[in-house]
Amino acid sequence: MASDYTDTLQRLCHHLKQFTGPDVEITPQTDLINQLAIDSVKLLNLIMEVEDEFDISVPLNALADVQTVHELANLIHQIKSAK
Amino acid sequence: MTSTINLEGKTLSSTIAKLNAPLTQAFDPRSSSLSPITIIPTPTPTYNTQAQRLADFETLTAALEYAAVGNAGYNFYDAKGNLRSVLSYQALRQNARISAERLSGLGLAYGDRVAVIADTTPEFVELFFACRYAGLIPFAMPVPVNLGSHAIYVQQLRGMLEGGQASAALANVDYIGFLREAAEGSQGLRWVGTPEELGKLSPLNIPLQANHPDETAYLQFTSGSTRTPRGVIITERALMSNLRGIVRNGLGIRPGDRCASWLPFYHDMGLVGMVMAPMVAQVSVDYLATRDFAIRPLQWLRLISRNRATVAFSQPFGLKLCTLRVRDSDLEDLDLSSWRAAGVGAEMIRPETLRNFAEKFAPAGFDAKAFLPCYGLAESTLAVTFSQIGQGFQSLRVDASTLVDRKVAVRLQAEGRKYSEFVNCGRPLPEHTVKIVDENGMELPDLRVGSVLVHGSSIMTGYFNNPEDTQKTLQPGNWLDTGDLGFLFEGDLYVTGRRTDVIIVNGRNIRAQDIEELAEQQPEVRTREASAFGITDAGDVTTIVLVIECRLTSITDRQSLTGRLQRLVYMAFGVNCLVELVPPHTLPRTSSGKLSRFAARQGFIQRTTLTDQLSAESGDN
Question: CATH classification of B395-454+469-498 is 2.60.40.1180, yes or no?
Fold first, then answer.
């Protein structure tokens, strides 16, 4: 399962690149709010891309506990595993 | 994940799906069989079997008793556009009455408040009506929408539970955890649970009393406020008066009408406009959850197209999302020609938003004459003015500098002058009057900009348990101060802006006071040393600015405060904000020592020399 998580993380980071300059490194600890400045509109775009990419549905209640890249990757991974 | 509903469709067998299906389906003859064959539900029909009555009822439950005789109802669609559940008005009546008997068994007193987290589900609607049947006062609470908002969301819920003095609170499995956290240590709450848990209680077998027109129908909380939420009190009489105005005068509802909506049930436009108004006219509605619309706006348009909806409302922001996010290649499959009432309201309407939408969707059969700008607010139940149905939107171009300098709307005489264009929001509903007044409360003539005041039969009784704010908002003679600025011209209302106490970002109303209170909760920030306001650039993008008087000298400390404030504002409101730290005594104060947000905003604009990039807005005060 660990490799699945790594794969999820990599694919997620690919989508997150659009929010940063090319020289910014995105790590699991990167803060989505402070460092990537994902506002509510950007968030919608991101969720749509994530849902399409991973073929999942992300429930709103789970996002309330997501602040970092790792937490989002972990959430996606959990939803995928539950399928 | 606790949520199974969200994973349905692809992953769960129909048997499991049925176990997780809304309570309502237990009463639905179509799905009562236990056979594992997937039963495809059919939406309630557009053409009703009963004679249409347009909101001529004394109370909401009286209206439901009538609607239950016909075959219209509510239909709930999932993110992929599949029909998830059907709640006919008949089933709603039956389920709501049973839930009312269960609520009656909780030992609550007549008129006690019941808080319900309002996801777009049949259960919410059933609970809302169950409360009315049981003589209880429901109020809707929002769902969490922002990243990392857990703690602040719980705080918001707690504020509403306390502000509304709720005796019972309900949420579905997705949100019950947040609700239980918020309810911890509460003195007033006697019962907290899910609709399923309520369903396990035994119904108290007592006859349900009819509601009286003068009793409170519900509370509507006006913003996702942190410490000082305000619950608008609306009586049955006010509600029915407003609904009558909406379905008869505003929309001219007739047989063949059908609604499609993504508006949240915890918002007045969603709840009053798209849950209650269709029911009191026995019209069917197709729902898409707000979240699903926000992620894929095309689904809403598809619903309109497929089910031949005639009435669908949106905030301007929702229309913008459609324009931005729907691909041209998607237009081929859309037929929006049935859409005769495209209601627009709940925030300032910019003509460009409507023009862009019309241009984008004309190839899909959208008729710009369907635009129906309107104006209203929760404090007047929902609607105050409607423009003429079927006429499209009208607007007025006025000289920008005269508007700002002299607060007068002078119609543009010559081309080339800088102008502001305002959308005509139409005339007040019957039994309602709008007037414009200056700072001294003196009524102003046509084309003079001032505060918009409303008088009429759907005005709130007040804010629940908040005489201070009630007194500020309901002026002598029961004139409601809307907090909006505008002018009248030939009987029609033109809204020109909000006063500085509310900031509208991406379609959401955010109270400046709430942002300032968040800041003041930080140890480094003293009371009355934070000022929040919005600035809107020429591209119609609003940014929240938070100016803080700050004594910190170390760069690390200052950065820590700035970062923390941006984070808190994001978590609470889902928007980024600009934080400016200024030396003490920078923020302008009034003679009584109160901060002036208007002056703070002017000061910020001067410091940052943004003047030219901002769109002209008429005189805030």
Answer: no
